[in-house]
Specification:
The protein is an all-alpha fold. The chain is built from 14 helices and no strands. Helix content is 74%, strand content 0%.
């Protein structure tokens, strides 16, 4: 396990190095002055610009400039927004928790619904239930998310009036921000109306999280179906059948557990797609996440915000990949064994 951890740590450090190099390079690729693109100081005087240039080592070599840029990142100095003139690091800390809340809720919904349906499809292989589930998965994956979001707002918010169509929580509830994740902040709040606020926040997250979860759920259906079929075709399952175990005993005692491990391995690979879907959904439902903030920054040509937002999202996605690998290695010891050649 120690060797596996060291390998993942080296991979994490190497990936962070590549991401920082790409983020640093964006300041040269964007239109305009490089030092303004990296600092966001568009209203500074010529003397102020020169001070910023000295701070970032503009007159030094590229390697020195990159090293100074890394130091600025670790110190929390990610520049300021070109439009709001607010610190980028603070903006990311304000918006990223809402995206984490939305994506994690959507991932939970996708796994809880998609994996059992995929197992049902595999158990009913080549039957009508299997054909119906595969057809549903194909249709669900093909639906454009922006159309689905608008359709759910039209039906459940406007026509039926069951759920709110925008925002994270009603303006009637004043919840002090502690972690930035709305549900945790509500539970930590001393407000006498926190349970009403919790219910209101739950109603706000249902529509956007279900919209984001649809496409990943259809992928989990296919992954779970394939994994279950592979497990049912293994020798130990056939041996269990030969010993006289019933089909239900084989499924619940052996097949589900082993098939689930293989599905968890692919969760991290689907998370990048889920974050991309969440960015579009945040715009449709006015969700105050980093995806909506980043898209607005692109419209406004806020290059400093684009640079910092892409770096933050990339780090977030990769951390989920690493966490998924650790969970998979914990559940499957064979994944962390060191393979050696013949002695």
């Amino acid at each position: 396990m120690l060797i596996f951890t060291l390998r993942r740590l080296n991979l994490f450090l190497f990936t962070m190095l590549i991401l920082s190099i790409l983020s640093f390079s964006l300041s040269f690729l964007f239109p305009g002055e490089q030092i303004i693109n990296i600092s966001g100081q568009i209203n500074a005087t010529p003397e102020g610009i020169e001070l910023v240039a000295l701070e970032y080592g503009k007159h030094e070599s590229l390697i020195t400039q990159y090293w100074i840029y890394l130091n600025q990142l670790f110190e929390g100095n990610w520049g300021v927004s070109m439009t709001s003139q607010l610190p980028i690091y603070g903006e990311i800390l304000n918006h990223l928790p809402a995206t984490i809340e939305l994506t994690m809720t959507a991932l939970f919904i996708a796994m809880v619904t998609g994996i059992p349906i995929g197992f049902i499809a595999a158990i009913n292989h080549r039957k009508k239930a299997d054909d119906f589930i595969l057809s549903f998965a194909m249709i669900g994956y093909s639906i454009p998310i922006f159309w689905l979001g608008l359709l759910t707002i039209l039906i459940f918010s406007i026509q039926l009036g069951w759920l709110p169509s925008a925002g994270q929580i009603s303006l009637l509830y004043e919840i002090k921000q502690v972690t930035g994740i709305q549900f945790i902040d509500i539970l930590l709040s001393d407000s006498p109306y926190k349970w009403q606020a919790f219910q209101n926040a739950s109603s706000h997250i249902i529509l956007p999280s279900c919209v984001v979860a649809l496409a990943p759920a259809t992928i989990f259906i296919r992954l779970a179906r394939t994994s279950m079929l592979n497990v049912l075709d293994t020798h130990y399952i056939k041996a269990a059948m030969a010993k006289g175990l019933t089909f239900q005993q084989i499924i619940y005692r052996h097949a589900i557990r082993n098939a689930l491990v293989n599905v968890i391995r692919d969760v991290g690979l689907q998370f990048a797609n889920l974050v991309t879907l969440a960015m579009v959904t945040e715009v449709i439902f006015s969700w105050p996440g980093i995806g909506r903030w980043l898209i607005e920054s692109i419209y406004q040509r806020d290059y400093t915000a684009i640079q910092g937002g892409l770096l933050a999202l990339s780090c977030f996605i990769f951390l989920v990949h690493i966490l998924t690998d650790f969970i998979y290695a914990t559940l499957n010891p064979l994944a962390r064994e060191t393979h050696r050649g013949p002695q």
